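Example record

One chain of 247 residues, shown exactly as stored in the release files.
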Amino acid sequence: MSLDFITPDWPAPATVRALSTTRAGGVSGGVFRALNLGDHVGDDPTCVATNRRLLQQTAGIPGTIPWLSQVHGCVVHPADAPYRATPEADATCAHVAGQPCVVMTADCLPVLFCNRAGSVVAAAHAGWRGLHGGVLEATIASMGCAPGDLLAWMGPAIGPEAFEVGPEVREAFISEQAEAATAFQPSPHQGKWLADIYLLARLRLARAGVSAVYGGEHCTVSAPERFFSYRRDGQTGRMASLIWIEP
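Predicted C-alpha cells for this chain:
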C-alpha cells in the first residue's frame, strides 16, 4: 500500500511544504499497522526506522528530521540547532530552509505554522494539557514575527463527538478564557463533557493574535482504517505532521 498524506489547504508560500501522515503504507504489523512512526510505543525498532526512511524518501523531506520526545509540555526545540540526542519538547521551530519540523500524534492536535513570507516554520503537539499550558503561544513566540503575520493549520485530531473529558478540564479552560465554554457540550455520560479541541485551539490562537487558521476537519477516533488513535485503541502507532522550507 502506498503512503497516504494529508496536505494543508492554506495560502502558504510556494516554498513552504507541509503534510500529515496517515497509517497507510509502511511495514509495521499488528496494532501498529502500517506506517507507525513512533519509536516509543512498543513497535519493532527496525520497522519504525524503515517507516521513517520511507516517509522521508516518499515526501522528499530534506535534512535530518528532529524527532522529539513529547511530554505534553510547552518547550519549543529549535530544529536548526545542533541535533545530538532526542530533545524533550512538544514543539519545534526552524528559521532556515531545508530543516524540517515534526511532531507526532495519535489523537492530540498537531498545529503547523508558517509566516506569510515563508521565512520561518514551526510545528506544535497540543493535547489538552499542552494546549491549556500554552504550547501554541510558546511556539508563536519562538517564531520571532508578528502573530498577525502567521498562518496556522490544524491536522488530524480527536473529534468533538469523541473527546470526552471530566469537569476539571472544562473548568481549567473556562477559568482562563470565558469563551472556551462554547467548546464543551454535555456528554451522554453524567458529569462528563465533550470537548472540541479544534475550537479550543482556534480560541487560543485568536487570543494570541493569529486569525488565519485552517484545517480541523478530521477525527482520528472515527476513522480506524486511516488514523491511529490512542483513545480508541490504547496501544497503537503514531502519525507525524511535518513542515519545512524548500532549500
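Notes: The domain at 5-245 is CATH 3.60.140.10 (CNF1/YfiH-like putative cysteine hydrolases).
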